[in-house]
Amino acid sequence: MFRFLQSWLPSRERAHAWLERHPWISGALERTGCLHVHRRTLARGVAVGVFVGLTPTVGMQTLLMLIGCVAIRGNFPAAFVVSWVSNPITLGPLYFAFNELGEAVFGGVIGPEIEISDRADAAAVGLIYLVLGSLLIAGPLAIAAYVIFIWSWRLLVIRRRRHALRDRRRRDQSGDGPT
């Protein structure tokens, strides 16, 4: 899993060069753990990326992910990679589904309270439905992404240990072990 994530991240030299040009950001990221590669920080970063990626925050996603990763000590590069779940191809269908979900769940509560007299009011109500619908999906999926990442990491570690144990037993049985 680590090698897969490394393929998506910028090179260490490139990241260090950028961080040397920005010492204040470098210190803040180091103190908060936004660049640490640990299973929990990676899982938090994935959760932040899924949450922000599934909310209608186009144009502010990177800033919100950085704030979220600093707040919960998540890995920012992992959040950035995962946030592409809402790319330009999937953006339209996702926002349509969020709007429909928000209207289905909150239509009886919000609709009668706001008088729709012109297009601006209709757009405001639609935006409210969009935001509420996206939060209904983004919150549980972010929690699920965190849990799935932790479990997947654990399964990969167990698998790696089993393979190492099996290889060690084969070497010991064949007599090729270290002397």
Please explain how this structure is put together.
The structure is a single chain. The protein is mainly α. It has one domain. Helix content is 77%, strand content 0%. The chain is built from 8 helices and no strands. Helix 4 runs parallel beside helix 6 (76-82) and helix 7 (91-110) packs across helix 8 (119-174). The protein starts with a helix and ends in a 5-residue tail after the last helix. The mean pLDDT is 84.
Secondary structural class: mainly alpha
Rg, nearest Å? 22 Å
State the separation between the terminal residues, measured CA to CA.
33 Å
Compute the number of strand runs. Answer: 0
Largest β sheet strand count, sense and barrel closure: none
Number of domains: 1
Unreliable parts: none
What sort of overall outline do the alpha carbons produce when their principal axes are compared? Answer: extended
SSE ordering: HHHHHHHH
Residues in helices, as a percent range: over 70%
Average pLDDT: 84
Could you tell me the strand content as a percent range?
under 5%
Total count of helical runs of at least 4 residues: 8
